[in-house]
Amino acid sequence: QVQLVESGGGLVQPGGSLRLSCAASGDIITIFTMNWYRQAPGKQRELVAGVSSNSNIVYADSVKGRFTISRDNAKNMVYLQMSSLKPEDTAVYYCNADLLSFSRGGRIWGQGTQVTVSS
Q: How many CA atoms lie within 13 A of 22 on its CB side?
């Protein structure tokens, strides 16, 4: 069984910072890409940032210069450092990973963590 568990969400004031973490566990053989998505109320889920196994990184235009994705391959973890947060960053943030395990392969999603930016 493979699962992703996010943590680090919460309530923060505009201009503040938060760090999200996502841990992958189970019978993992290898993880290819790890990504952060978000979904705001009434909107479609969108890619925020992604990092490949060879450290190629992509960001949504809306978060460039404010968010930083990083990855610890030894721990099967991915992080999202969010700074200069804006109310429009409010959303449920989801981690996903494209991986291969002994029990399955493909894309796995976490359960999501709420980020609320409000004064």
A: 28
CA distance from start to end of the chain: 40
Using the predicted structure, report yes or no on whether residue 104 has a pLDDT greater than 90.
no
Q: DSSP assignment, residue 110?
A: -
Q: Which two tokens stand for residue 47?
A: 């890619």
Give the pLDDT confidence score for residue 79 in this predicted structure.
Answer: 98
SS3 state at 8: coil
One-character DSSP codes across 50-86: EE-TT--EEE-GGGTTTEEEEEETTTTEEEEEE-S--
At 25-81, the pLDDT tens digits run 999 999 999 999 999 999 999 999 999 999 999 999 999 999 999 999 999 999 999
CA–CA gap between residue 21 and residue 44 (Å, rounded): 22
Do residues 47 and 62 touch, judged by C-beta distance below 8 A? no
